[in-house]
Amino acid sequence: MRFARLFLFAIATLFAGHALAADAPGPKVLIQTSMGDIVLQLDPAHAPLTVANFLRYVREGHFDDTIVYRVVPGFVIQAGSWQADLQTRPVHDPVPLEANNGLSNVRGAVAMAHGAPDSATAEFFVDLADNVTLDHSATDTGNTTGFAVFGQVVQGMDVVDKIAAVPLGDHGPFLGSAPVTPVTIAKVTVLPDAAP
Description:
Cyclophilin, alpha+beta, two-stranded antiparallel sheet, 22% helix, 26% strand
């Protein structure tokens, strides 16, 4: 009887440990912009390939000294590989689409931008509103629709909103969507307390 109780306790402890591990938050990333700091909480449990891809670019310094090159008020702000001189940086092979991961493009969500499915590289955006039309379609059995959410803004949404309110012009890849005064990203780093 005592052995049975110890066995059940061990099993319960094991499953509790797995539940805690599954619920453990992913790494946090600090984006230092000319308008203030933004902190992202990444979600490798739901978007493992996308998070690994994003962290690779972060650790390589890919996003350092780039700009927020697209602002669509009430929709998204977007950044990634564009520099202030409108030159782009080289990127790695695209990451497979993980839009069918249960996460939604709600306000503050961070997702990968892409053209065709499975073509996302380093371009990412922050949702300024609940943009559920950007989610994976429930009728899509081939995982070819939607934009993969891989994290959430947990600090600095006020900074995101300030960026979304800047005057816009044509000096960028999207006409009418480029900040007139460049919004620069000085550095993007994985926060030390969350580094794997």
